[in-house]
Design goal:
The protein is mainly β and 518 residues long. It is 8% helix and 66% strand. A hairpin with a 4-residue loop joins strand 6 and strand 7. The protein starts with a helix and ends with a strand.
């Protein structure tokens, strides 16, 4: 076993060594608590202590392989991923309830090209990439911690910190390495009276993605590197990777308003969210190709209704994003101090094209699930569900006019059943079938002959215009295991999914995981 494998396996054992669990957690209990704890799905950490205060956690290590011809050019045609995740809900003393999670994922993407950044689609247009296909290594560390007070004179207070660092490295000339630092702080408060609760939270988020330099191992006099300004507008230059730098820094402010109504059998929680972001883009010596601004709106409605041993869940999630990019035309100005003789360089903006590139994203998700439960034991043993999704994405370059638009609808049916055995052993069988209908996929380019249009935009239309059937199956077996006189429920899980499109493309995914509840 490699040193990295030993480290990840040690992390998997850590919860067993640290936590002496008086009541064994199982998938049946975990699924039930996930269904009834509604505040955990919001951006308001103060609401955590208003749900059931259960100490519970899960840790697992998973391997995933994805491959197939149904893919986007800038995502590659296959990927491997190794993920470790651990999370815990925990009462802290008499007055606090907290949540913490840690995720480490690493992977490799194959045959990827034309993008050296982490956001290749429907986002800031001022990124860069190479037309040469190659492998990319991905690595991310994601931390989240939330703390909520118990109710004090009808109020609860909370605070949440999210922090993520990442790395995207290209393994073929020209070799770029993109670094990510992303954090968000969220203070929050709730106020309750009778069966009603209102909550308010606000957040500040700073996201910085940077390509500090690009190196090459071999010398190719014809190797080009491309920079983009939106749609088919891409500029390639021989040796353009030399001394190339690019930095994206986004500052975002947002708020969420929540309302909850709860009785013995019914619980409803609705949230409205809004955030505004402004992202600066810099090159070497503070060169600015443009600036990108976003406005995000969200509605989330979660509803639970209990009738006997049946728990009905209905969730509605709607999000809308509007992004606008201002494009700059700049000239490089070099000035020399007449006294010291020191030269300084700056970029002077000559022309600003306001909102030259525009992005509009809309997503509506409705999910219903019927769960068979044991209300006394607070466990689940089976479920069936139905989901419907409507999605619309539009990109537009205004001068000269080029545009892209994609709309699709997706329906999915799902089900799961637990075969229960003695000694806390069980086998869960879960399956889902879906149909994805492409409603429209339109691309109108002023100049479809550009290399970026021929290599990326036009081939990607086969992906956006495809309708497909898909299915997935997952098996999970769990059993108690005692390590150092501490017993926990361990599980092994295997999964697979497959989809086939009407464009004669397909995609396959396999996964294997081992973990424990604690």
């Amino acid at each position: 076993m490699t040193h990295r494998g030993k480290f990840l396996f040690g992390l998997l054992l850590l919860p067993v060594c640290l936590q002496a669990q008086s009541e064994l957690q199982t998938k049946q209990k975990y699924e039930y608590q996930d269904a009834v704890q509604l505040w955990r799905s919001t951006l308001n950490p103060a609401g955590l202590s208003l749900d059931t205060l259960v100490n519970r956690g899960i840790s697992y290590l998973s391997l995933t392989r994805q491959e197939g011809t149904h893919s986007l050019v800038q995502d590659g045609d296959a990927s491997n991923a190794l993920v470790f995740k651990s999370e815990r809900y925990q009462q802290i003393g008499k007055y606090l309830y907290g949540y913490g999670s840690f995720t480490f994922d690493m992977g490799r993407q194959f045959e990827r090209s034309w993008s050296d950044v982490m956001r290749s689609h429907h986002s800031n247009p001022y990124f860069s990439g190479s037309s040469i296909k190659g492998k990319y290594d991905v690595q991310n560390f994601d931390l989240s911690a939330s703390l909520a007070t118990r109710p004090m004179h009808s109020f609860t207070y909370g605070f949440r910190l999210d922090y993520k660092v990442g790395d995207l490295s290209r393994l073929k000339d020209p070799r770029s390495r993109t670094n990510l630092a992303d954090y968000r702080v969220t203070p929050a408060v709730t106020y309750s009276w009778q069966q009603h609760t209102v909550g308010l939270s606000g957040h500040y988020r700073r996201r910085k993605e940077k390509i500090p330099n690009i190196i090459t191992v071999q010398t190719d006099p014809n190797m080009q590197y491309y920079t983009y300004t939106g749609m088919e507008n891409a500029k390639g230059s021989i040796g353009g990777y030399s001394a190339f730098e690019r930095q994206f820094t986004n500052h975002e402010l947002g708020a969420e308003l929540a309302y909850s109504y709860q009785t013995e059998r019914f619980h409803s929680l609705t949230t409205l969210t809004y955030s505004k972001g402004n992202e600066s883009v810099y090159g070497d010596t503070k060169y600015e190709p443009g600036k990108y601004a976003t406005s995000n709106y969200g509605l989330l409605s979660q509803n639970r209704y209990t009738v006997g041993d049946k728990l009905h869940s209905l969730d509605v999630n709607v999000s809308y994003e509007q992004g606008d990019a201002d494009e700059y035309r700049q000239e490089k100005v070099t000035e020399k101090d007449p006294v010291t003789g020191i030269e300084s360089t700056r970029w002077n903006t000559l022309i600003t094209y306001n909102k030259r590139y525009q992005v509009t994203l809309l997503n509506a998700d409705v999910h219903y699930r019927l769960m068979w439960t044991n209300p006394q034991l607070r466990t689940s043993k089976a479920y069936v569900g139905l989901r419907g999704i409507l999605n619309s994405a539009e990109n537009k370059y205004t001068l000269p006019v080029s545009s892209f638009k994609s709309d699709y609808a997706r329906t999915e049916v799902e089900g799961g059943y637990a075969f229960l055995f003695k000694g806390s052993r069980s086998l869960w069988v879960e399956a889902a079938a879906s149909y994805h209908a492409s409603l429209s996929a339109d691309l109108n380019l002023t100049d479809p002959s550009t290399e970026y249009a021929q290599s990326v935009l036009l081939p990607d239309m086969n992906y956006y215009g495809a309708s497909h059937f898909g299915g997935r199956l997952q098996l999970q077996y769990q059993m108690p295991v005692t390590i150092k006189k501490t017993t926990a429920i361990w599980f092994a899980k295997i999964g697979a999914s497959y989809l086939k499109t009407n464009k004669h493309t397909d995609a396959t995914m396999y996964s294997l995981a081992i973990g424990l509840y604690h």
